[in-house]
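so the lab meeting is tmrw and i was supposed to have these ready like two days ago... anyway. pasting both below. for each one the top line is the aa sequence and the line under it is the structure tokens. i havent really looked at them closely yet so no promises
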Amino acid sequence: MLSRDVFRVLAAGAIWRLARTALAGRVLVRALGARSEDARVMAGMLLTRSGRTALPLLREAMARHENLPTVITIVGSIGDHSLEPELRRFASDSDPQVARAARDSLRILGAEGA
């Protein structure tokens, strides 16, 4: 049986794929912090597979410090260098999980020493 969180992610994912509405995308970003691991994983996969289309939502989430380690990891997985300056700032964050995620994302982008 699907949890409410998983159902919400599936519905938002369908709307996001079809209409690319910011509201549906924000539901996916919020779901990265859901109680259900299945919901978190599905939301992350949907955002990652969206590629550059998801970058405005991810930039917004980074500015709000929402689900930062996961959002930063997704940014790195997408492989777009446009958010590199933000990743560099987060690489020295006081939260070790955030800093580690940012350094890992920079490494994926091949920008860790640049």
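ok protien two:
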Amino acid sequence: MKIYNSITELPNKLAIFPLTGAVLFPQTQLPLNIFEPRYLNMIDEVLSSPDRIMGMIQPNISKNDPNSKNLKKVGCAGRISSFSETGDGRYLVTLTGLIRFEVNNELDTTTQYRQAITNYDNYKEDLLPANVENIDRKSLLILIKKYLEQRNLLIDWEIIEQSPTEQLINYSGVLVPFEPEEKQLLLETKSLFDRCKTLESLFQSYQFQNNQDSNSSELH
């Protein structure tokens, strides 16, 4: 896959896929099952573009206006790195994360899918090798293991232990069933170190809640 060294090499106009709970991080892969006609059309057009880049972003759903079409402030651009068609007309796509973006403005287009002008200025470091020097990998692994055990999630622990620190952090944001707002919180953290600290806080809060629930059950 092409390596992007500067934000000047990236397209500023992106087809965007708003999807609640689906968050892409740099250097992660997100599988997508595409079946809506407008998004099938979007994938066709993205595949025909030189870079095959599109944007993932969460809708900004409001309790007061559940039909709002507003978007979150920050999403992540990714490149379609694999693609296949199914016999029933769906597309199975893998999107590989490149860099986060902010939405400058959404375009008024004739396409069925949405497009936006994006800004990468605040996330240039996403294109650089990750700095993991100050991250306490051992503590992070302990928290991940406790969370998996409490949730009875069966995952190959050897694979997790062998994963690079950056992937441990970013894939936690992709794969762990956090709430959409919690995933967005992780996405919007400025640095990998800050994301790790936020992730640790989330794991700790879930463990605290689990302990509270266990104690409450014992009392009854």
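from a quick look at the 2nd one: The radius of gyration is 19 Å. The chain is about 35% helix and 25% strand. will dig more after coffe
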